[in-house]
User: Which sequence fits this backbone?
């Protein structure tokens, strides 16, 4: 009976955890703050709200204050084109004496306006010229287009790609939007353009892959994507894998980049093939498929403290466990150190971590081992503690290496766009569609990491890559041509 009671209690604990997790997914905000922290922030917010109310009441009766507040308003972006609209008085001369006006000065008020996107047709005309003295006829060569015998220009193609893979607008919705402007573009036509752009941009995607895998340390993660199963009327689950090179937190100025790869399932053979040539540190979650990669000895594992924290956070939210709260507090102290050293060189990060995080981590391990003895081994808290202890070497590797991050959030952020888009386009049409998506996500994700506007970049490269030497494709990487369209 005691054994049965323990088993039932463990099951009840698990069900409570799952219910609370789904409640937060449905109704709650995505946050890992403790209730105590939220309460403190709420009190602080209430105080500031009262301060704002007092200031606004005072401003209503104080013209000078309102004028100062208006001057402090953030200016409109300087790079935007300006259209000057001059407002002249109705009188052409002085209404009092009839004299002419002389310009004394001017008052300027700027308003931000939006001009809707519009289509235009570019007519490429090539006159045939005949010599008046002989029979020679000359004509300019036909300009090459991004798509052979296609009617779409680089600007339209880049807009379709960014609308789908950056703004998460499915092709059928784009077709409806274009139809409202009197341009009939079938979804199948748009899909064909996406496929041809994938082929056109493949050398550039390969260059980004080489850049990412040449790093000393990369982040890896994956996310599911529904894929239509031909002839079955159902979907199956494919995967998009993201591998990110971003050493800016360690003070490295090498351009960051992300490479996406598609696979029809989550077998370990896929990341093993992706990273076959990689040598260095892989920071990832505890997916078993990464195991054989670490066994080669050429790749070192760095684990993710965010995964440990997430498991403990779920427990604390479900049953307000004081042990989970204490574990979260200790992990929070490690993240406080990381905020202090972000952007500093690796040697400084390493020294700070060894001096400050090292003792905290050792004390945390002792605390977990001691408390684990008093817990039911079937409890979720015991599972969360064992999850950390069994990966302790990989979790603590970051302390002695200033190049490594404390977590794998870099890869998770790169996959966020996929998760948002997945809610809109519901599924991919085929495995080939998954590969096309991986290519475009690679280019758009790399642009975003480098703070480059993706539509302008794609317009530039789609217009020139067809005639660009393939052995010099690195010249078209986002950070190499950003100034050309800024």
Assistant:
């Amino acid at each position: 009976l005691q054994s049965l009671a323990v088993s039932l209690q463990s099951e009840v604990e698990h069900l409570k955890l799952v219910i609370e997790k789904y409640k937060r997914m449905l109704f709650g905000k995505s946050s890992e703050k403790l209730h105590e922290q939220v309460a403190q922030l709420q009190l602080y917010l209430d105080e500031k709200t009262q301060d704002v109310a007092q200031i606004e009441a005072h401003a209503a009766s104080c013209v000078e204050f309102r004028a100062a507040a208006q001057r402090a308003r953030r200016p409109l972006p300087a790079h935007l084109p300006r259209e000057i609209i001059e407002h002249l008085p109705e009188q052409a001369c002085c209404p009092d004496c009839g004299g002419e006006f002389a310009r004394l000065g001017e008052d300027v008020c700027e308003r931000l306006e939006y001009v809707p996107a519009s289509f235009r047709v570019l007519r490429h005309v090539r006159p045939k010229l005949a010599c008046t003295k002989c029979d020679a006829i000359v004509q300019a060569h036909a300009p090459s287009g991004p798509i052979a015998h296609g009617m779409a220009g680089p600007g339209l193609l880049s807009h379709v790609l960014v609308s789908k893979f950056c703004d998460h607008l499915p092709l059928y919705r784009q077709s409806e939007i274009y139809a409202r402007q009197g341009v009939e573009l079938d979804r199948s036509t748009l899909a064909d353009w996406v496929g041809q752009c994938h082929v056109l941009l493949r050398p550039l995607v390969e260059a980004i892959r080489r850049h990412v895998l040449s790093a000393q340390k990369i982040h890896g993660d994956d996310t599911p994507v529904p894929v239509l199963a031909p002839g079955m009327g159902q979907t199956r689950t494919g995967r998009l894998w993201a591998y990110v090179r971003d050493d800016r937190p360690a003070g490295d100025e090498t351009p960051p980049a992300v490479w996406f790869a598609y696979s029809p399932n989550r077998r370990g053979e896929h990341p093993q093939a992706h990273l076959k040539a990689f040598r260095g540190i892989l920071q990832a979650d505890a997916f078993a498929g990464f195991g054989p990669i670490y066994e080669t000895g050429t790749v070192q594992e760095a684990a993710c403290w965010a995964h440990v924290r997430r498991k403990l956070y779920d427990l604390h939210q479900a049953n307000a466990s004081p042990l989970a709260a204490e574990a979260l507090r200790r992990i929070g102290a490690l993240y406080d150190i990381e905020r202090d050293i972000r952007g500093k060189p690796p040697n400084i990060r390493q020294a700070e971590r060894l001096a400050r995080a090292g003792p905290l981590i050792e004390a945390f391990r002792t605390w977990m081992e001691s408390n684990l003895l008093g817990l039911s081994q079937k409890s979720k808290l015991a599972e969360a503690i064992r999850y950390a202890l069994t990966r302790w070497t990989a979790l603590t590797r970051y302390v002695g290496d200033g190049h490594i991050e404390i977590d794998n959030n870099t890869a998770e952020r790169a996959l966020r766009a996929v998760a948002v888009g997945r809610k809109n386009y519901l599924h991919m049409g085929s495995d080939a569609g998954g590969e096309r998506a991986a290519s475009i996500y690679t280019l758009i994700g790399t642009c975003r990491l480098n703070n480059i506007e993706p539509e302008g970049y794609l317009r530039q490269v789609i217009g020139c890559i067809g005639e660009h030497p393939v052995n010099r494709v690195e010249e078209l990487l986002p950070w190499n041509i950003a100034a050309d369209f800024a």
Notes: The mean pLDDT is 85.
